[in-house]
Each structure stands twice: as C-alpha cells, then as structure tokens.
Amino acid sequence: MTDNQFSTHAELFDLSGKCALVTGGTRGIGMMIARGLLQAGARVDISSRKADACTEAQQFLSSFGDVRAIPADLSRRDECQRLAALVEADSDRLDILVNNAGAMWREPLGTFPDEGWDAVIDLNLKSPFWLVQALLPALRRAGTADDPARVINIGSIAAIHVAQAPTYSYASSKAALHQLTRVLARELGPQHVTVNAVAPGVFPSQMTASTLDAIGGTIAAAAPLRRLGRADDMAGIAVFLASRAGSYLTGAVIPVDGGIATTATGTP
C-alpha cells in the first residue's frame, strides 16, 4: 500500500486469515477480546488453567468463528512453553498474542503474604514475558513492515491511578507490565512486531464481581462517561490494535475506563 492509497472501512478492521492466542480467554475481558477477534475473522486459540472452563468457553465462542481452547497453567514457565509449542504446531506463525491471563490478591498491608506477591507476579508479569520469549519466532514469521505482528498486553488503570483497594501486588505487577510493554515495543518494532497495552477500568467479570456488588454504582458515577465497561468496549479496542487500523501504534498504554484514570479524582 502506498501513501496515496486508502483502505476501505472493512479492510481497516478485517482480521481474516489471522491467527491469534488469547490467554485467560475463557471468561471476562479475555472472552470479550476473543469474541471480537473471532467476529473480525481471526482464528483464535484461548487458554485457561481449568480444562472444564476451556470446554465451556470453546462451545460458546464457536458460534462466532474458528476457536480452540487449550488448558495451561501460565504461572509456570514450562506451561507457557508447552502452550507456545501447541500453538506453533498448528500454525508456524502467530499474528496476534493477547496476554490477558491475570490474578489479583486483596489483603490489608499488615497481613499481606509472600504468596500474594509470588502468585500475582508470576501470572501478571512473568507469564507475558515468557510467552513473548517462546512465541517470538512465530510472531516474526507473521509480521511484515506493512502488517506487523501484534502483542497486546492487558494492564490496568490500577497501574495509572491509586485505587483504594489493598491490591499491592496487582497494581505493582500491572505498572511493571506497562513498562515492559514499552521496553519490548522498542526492541521488537524493527522486527515487525508491535507491542501495546490496554489498561481496562472496571468491567463485569468473576474477578470484579465482589467489587461491583459493593460499590459498582459508585464506580460508574465517578467515571466521566457515567457507566462501567461493556463487552463491545473491550472487543473494539482489541480489534483496533490487531488490525490494519492499529498497525502504526506501538509502545502505547491505552486506558479503556470511561475516563476514570486520566480525568477523575478520588475514585474507588
């Protein structure tokens, strides 16, 4: 494509023929993203630690496109490598890697345990790094100067502003993931791989269920857009970053939170 050529609207967001992996894709934000990529035409692998969750999610998502679910415990490096090998065995290239699998630990400062750091850091920070390491050859094979391969890391607005909840390791791990995104973007850009992060606000999920039950109305009221996140909001940003429309963006951290982290103060 030359500088004087324009893609059609459909071409800008079309992912037909693309291969994607979405970790933690069996529920919540991961499933929202997987659905969006499938509807845009991509073939999508999803992963989760629980085999029964994989089976259930694959059955649900299959109505949207070609999907395969692979059980894997991504808090372990060997499991990240095993997942990468299974993905590469099916296709020698990977166009889109979405590092979404994550964990949260909520406990007061005085009793916050070592386990609350180890479990969260392993899954939220080490796992994305391990998967990029293992899948980099497949990403390189997929990427070109005009159409790079994409890595999309799912961070959090908890890494941009300070929430009231005592989630010390979660906020810290997501802030580190945002910086890892920038570091990898600089290194992998010349190799035709973009690396960006999405920083979601509060979306309905199993992880946020208790928070929404307690203060969901307060959170929505604090957002300039006066609502919580919806499935289409997350699907839309993922398709944008994975498609032609987002091919000149790398090293960015994009808040998808109704404006809470960047404009509001004193929010939960």
Give your account of this protein's structure.
This protein is an alpha/beta fold. It has one domain (10-260): NAD(P)-binding Rossmann-like Domain (Rossmann fold, 3-Layer(aba) Sandwich). The protein is 46% helix and 14% strand. It is built from nine helices and seven strands. A seven-stranded parallel β-sheet has the order 3-2-1-4-5-6-7, sandwiched between helices. Helix 3 links the parallel strand 2 (43-48) and strand 3. The longest helix is centred in the middle third of the chain and has 29 residues, at 114-142. The chain is globular, with a radius of gyration of 18 Å. The mean pLDDT is 93.
Outline:
By secondary structure, the chain is α/β, with parallel strands linked by helices.
Find the CATH topology.
Rossmann fold
Whole-number average pLDDT?
Answer: 93
CATH architecture call: 3-Layer(aba) Sandwich
Q: How big is the Rg?
A: 18 Å
The low-confidence runs, each spanning 5 or more residues with pLDDT under 50, are: none
Q: What about the largest sheet?
A: 7 strands, parallel
User: Which geometry do the CA atoms define?
Assistant: globular
| Element order: H for helix, E for strand | HEHEHEHEHEHEHHEH
- Assigned CATH class: Alpha Beta
Q: What distinguishing features does this structure have?
A:
268 residues, Rossmann fold, seven-stranded parallel sheet, globular
